[in-house]
Design a protein that fits this description.
By secondary structure, the protein is of the alpha/beta class. The protein has helices at about 5-15, 30-40, 60-65, 80-90, 130-140, 185-190, 195-205, 225-235, 240, 245-260; strands at about 45-50, 70-75, 95-100, 115-120, 140-150, 210-225, 270-285. Helix 4 (about 80-90) links the parallel strand 2 (about 70-75) and strand 3. Helix 8 packs across helix 10. It comes from Nonomuraea corallina.
Length: about 290
């Protein structure tokens, strides 16, 4: 698949789900975004670029930290996501935040115009993320920082989902996915630089960064029920699987997921899963 087709697929997925993205009663992206901003630690008055801002899970915490004298620019390839972020910016009457439609892989922005570049579960989706990292370095001022999050990729674990999901998704269902979205293809792509911290650090250093820190930390995901989680999964990256499944196979997977996840609930309480997340921070080496 060529790069432009891939980016259009990603944009279409998130455009379709923008109205309900992270709004289905499942807590995950919002606490993960807050934690990312804590680690990025933008100071009052600083300028922040948020790559793949979505509806603003990390954009709004960053705007709060930099204050009225600071500035946060959120960019996303999906116009509907940007529209949702803009509506929230307007609803909050924020004068220090802006959202724009822009290719996160090649942001058309002035050199040395930001103190912090951050990306929550977004930079890893870029067709050539290591090359994009070098471009981000040019956007940062001397001593500027980068911070991004990703899943913790491990061989044998279904990509992008907590380990609890791997036995719940029959391998034969995955045959309906296009070749580039097959788990083996995703593992090859991401594990090439993301699975081992030493490879990740080396990639950032080649891109012009230093003081690389890799922190694997769980983020608690909560849902009122397994059914609620499955409904929510249609609004995020797993939509790529759902939209390629024929109706009978989609119904089968839905029942398997609901049954398996309900077994994880305790005493009728909410579904709670601690999701392994990798947080990466570094400083530009100049």
């Amino acid at each position: 698949m060529d790069t432009s087709t891939y980016k259009k697929q990603v944009a279409d997925v998130f455009d379709t789900s923008a109205a309900t993205y992270d709004r289905m009663g499942v807590e995950f992206f919002t606490p993960m975004g807050r934690r990312l901003v804590e680690l990025a630690a933008p100071a009052r008055g600083e300028r922040v670029l948020d790559i793949g801002c979505g509806r603003g899970a990390s954009l709004f915490p960053a705007a709060e930290r930099v204050g009225p004298s600071g500035y946060v620019l959120g960019i996303d390839v999906a116009p509907a996501m940007v529209a949702e972020a803009r509506a929230e910016i307007e609803a909050r009457a924020l004068g220090n935040a802006v959202a724009r439609v822009m290719d996160g892989e090649r942001p058309e922005l002035p050199d040395r115009s930001f103190d912090v570049v951050q990306g929550g579960y977004s930079i890893i989706f870029l067709p050539d993320a290591p090359a994009a990292l070098a471009r981000y370095g040019k956007l940062l001022v001397k001593g500027g920082r980068i911070a991004f999050s990703s899943p913790v990729f491990k061989t044998g674990i279904f990509p992008f989902l907590p380990p609890e999901f791997t036995p719940l998704i029959p391998r034969e269902l995955l045959g309906h996915l296009p070749p580039e979205w097959q788990p083996e293809a995703l593992v090859r792509r991401f594990n090439s630089w993301l699975e081992r911290p030493e490879d990740l650090a080396a990639t950032l250093e080649r891109a012009g960064f230093c003081d690389v820190a890799v922190l694997d930390e769980p983020v608690r995901m909560t849902a009122a029920s397994a059914e609620q989680w499955v409904d929510w999964s249609h609004t995020q990256g797993m939509r790529l699987l759902w939209q390629h499944l024929p109706a009978p196979q989609a119904a089968e997977l839905r029942e398997r997921l609901i049954g398996g996840l309900e077994a994880l609930r305790r005493d009728g309480g909410p579904l709670v899963i601690d999701v392994p997340v990798r947080f990466v921070t570094a400083r530009v080496a100049r």
